């Protein structure tokens, strides 16, 4: 099989344009013989670029709608590519037993194809069922919106969406559902806009509330923490982890995971201090954000942040959210 040229970001295939693609590829150096896990496969943009560089790729995703993209890459790179359905929180089990893993990439965001499919219920810009489930299992956003009491709903919107007007929004939602259940994305968006208004030039008033509900429905913070520690267990010394996050709450968790000193002790205060001080990650790179050229091509990249680090030889830690700044919904 001949050597393939590396694709530029603008040439990435599929409906979802992967953000910071060139920077991710540079960090992971996908040379022939390397084995890399794409823990959030989506439409396969990162996987395709890594495969084109010569690496073997093990792709993971819990969304069944990505299967056609996985099949396309399997046909194009039959000896290099494999797909495993599942959540990246268990990537060490899903990708383990396949030899040394040289890198892991995690894109902690909703893909454009999910946002653009109205029936998935992720976007307030398109009318569809108020769902937001990435795997079609468990509670939907409609379940939360129509069952949570006012205080619990307000606390969720504040903790996961950093929505300062969460209490007023929750009050309007509870009042609206007394007339009829809120079952579509536009139903909810209208209620939120009625609650807090909309100023010209500002982001849509439902932005933070939709983020909060999506995070809650998919247990995204728990998935992120478990995925980070799974990568720590999976990667041997010298392996690289690249994580792309899309808002400050996620980025804070990633930053403190790589550098525990930023957030205080991550493990129980009862463990020996020497154990807490052991560094599992070295060469922690400065955060990278997209440049003006990429933003002009892909406005959805504007909030993305890439952080990378290299695994040391220290023993992996037990999974723990302590010290990571995990948002907590009060009253739960």
Major sheet: arrangement of strands: 3-2-1-4-5-7-6
CATH C-level class of the largest domain is: Alpha Beta
Secondary-structure arrangement, i.e. CATH architecture of the largest domain: 3-Layer(aba) Sandwich
Radius of gyration: 20 Å
Mean pLDDT over all positions: 87
Element pattern in H and E: HEHEHEHEHHHHHHHEHHEHE
* CATH level-4 homologous superfamily of the largest domain: Vaccinia Virus protein VP39
Q: How many strands?
A: 7
Q: Kindly estimate the percentage of residues that lie in beta strands according to DSSP.
A: 5-15%
C-alpha end-to-end distance: 55 Å
Number of helices: 14
- Summed up, the domain count is 2
EC number: 2.1.1.199
Subcellular location: Cytoplasm
Protein name: Ribosomal RNA small subunit methyltransferase H
InterPro entries: RsmH, SAM-dep_MeTrfase_MraW_recog, SAM-dependent_MTases_sf
What does this entry look like structurally?
Specifically methylates the N4 position of cytidine in position 1402 (C1402) of 16S rRNA. Belongs to the methyltransferase superfamily. RsmH family. With 332 residues, this protein is α/β, with parallel strands linked by helices. It folds into two domains: 197 residues, Vaccinia Virus protein VP39 (Rossmann fold, 3-Layer(aba) Sandwich), CATH 3.40.50.150; 82 residues, Putative methyltransferase TM0872, insert domain (DNA polymerase, domain 1), CATH 1.10.150.170. It has 14 helices and seven strands. Strands 3-2-1-4-5-7-6 form a seven-stranded mixed β-sheet.
């Amino acid at each position: 099989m001949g050597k393939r040229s590396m694709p530029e970001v603008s040439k990435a295939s599929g409906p979802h344009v992967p953000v910071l693609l060139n920077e991710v590829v540079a960090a992971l150096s996908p040379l022939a013989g390397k084995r890399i896990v794409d823990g959030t496969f989506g439409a396969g943009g990162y996987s395709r670029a890594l495969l084109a560089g010569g690496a073997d790729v093990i792709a993971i995703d819990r969304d069944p709608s990505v299967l056609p993209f996985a099949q396309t890459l399997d046909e194009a790179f039959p000896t290099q590519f494999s797909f495993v359905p599942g959540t990246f929180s268990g990537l060490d089990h899903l990708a383990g037993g396949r030899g040394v893993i040289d890198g892991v990439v995690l894109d902690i965001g909703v893909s454009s194809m999910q946002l653009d499919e109205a029936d998935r219920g992720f976007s307030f810009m398109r009318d569809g069922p108020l769902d937001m489930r990435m795997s079609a299992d468990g509670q939907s956003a409609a379940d939360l919106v129509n069952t949570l009491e006012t205080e619990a709903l307000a606390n969720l919107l504040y903790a996961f969406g950093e929505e300062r007007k969460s209490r007023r929004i929750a009050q309007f939602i509870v009042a609206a559902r007394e007339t009829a259940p809120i079952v579509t994305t536009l139903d909810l968006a209208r209620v939120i806009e009625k609650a807090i208004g909309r100023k010209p030039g500002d982001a849509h008033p439902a932005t933070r509330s939709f983020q909060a509900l999506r995070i809650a429905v998919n247990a995204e913070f728990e998935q992120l923490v478990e995925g980070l520690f799974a990568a720590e267990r999976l990667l041997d010394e010298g392996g690289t982890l690249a994580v792309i996050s899309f808002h400050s709450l996620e980025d804070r968790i990633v930053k403190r995971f790589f550098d525990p000193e930023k957030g205080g002790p991550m493990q129980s205060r009862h463990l020996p201090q020497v154990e807490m001080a052991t560094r599992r990650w070295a060469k922690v790179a400065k955060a990278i954000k997209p440049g003006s050229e990429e933003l002009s091509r892909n406005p959805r990249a504007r909030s993305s942040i890439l952080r990378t680090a290299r695994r040391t030889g220290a023993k992996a830690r037990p999974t723990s959210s302590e010290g990571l700044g995990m948002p907590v919904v009060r009253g739960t």
